[in-house]
Amino acid sequence: MGIINEFKAFAVKGNMIDMAVGIIIGAAFGKIVSSLVGDVIMPPLGMLIGGVDFSDLAIVLKAAEGDAPAVTLGYGKFIQTIIDFIIVAFAIFVGVKTINRLKREEAVAPSAPPVPSKEELLLTDIRDLLKAQAEKP
Questions:
Q1: What is the DSSP code (8-state) at residue 55?
Q2: For the segment 24-41, what is each residue's pLDDT rounded down to a tens digit?
Q3: What is the CATH number that goes with domain 2-124?
Q4: Residue-wise pLDDT tens digits, 97-112
């Protein structure tokens, strides 16, 4: 019974939930980047290099025979994956750099002066009263 309670404590910690949210958002971000690369970046790039679609690039190692499919080396899909990775890595780099810059700006921002303690306030009041009495003729 103890191990079940330990697992519950582990599973409901904030870090575990934050990690799950991060994984879900990361998966959705991966789909967005794949669409950006496949649907927006690659068509013009393929057109610039003569209408080549990278995902279709392959070397046939063994031609199809009868019902057996052809054996191909799909290097175009590999190129596509590398481009996806570079774009994702760059997007993460820019995001982390922005977050770090904001943290540095936050650290540099002047903090509010410390609130005086009760003793300091009391001493200030006593000082002011003594000054007022000394000024009276």
A1: G
A2: 888 888 788 778 877 887
A3: 1.10.1200.120
A4: 988 888 887 777 677 7
- b vs e for 51-77, b when ≥16 Cβ sit within 10 Å of the residue's Cβ? eeebeebeeeeeeeeeeeeeeeeeebe
Q: Which of 42, 24, 46, 52 is nearest to 86 (CA)?
A: 42
Looking from the CA of 7 toward its CB, the CA atoms found within 13 Å total 4
How far is Cα 11 from Cα 93, in angstroms, rounded to an integer?
Answer: 30
Write down the residue that tokens 């994956």 correspond to: 81
3-state secondary structure of 106: helix
Predicted structure pTM score: 0.49
Domain residue spans of the chain: 2-124
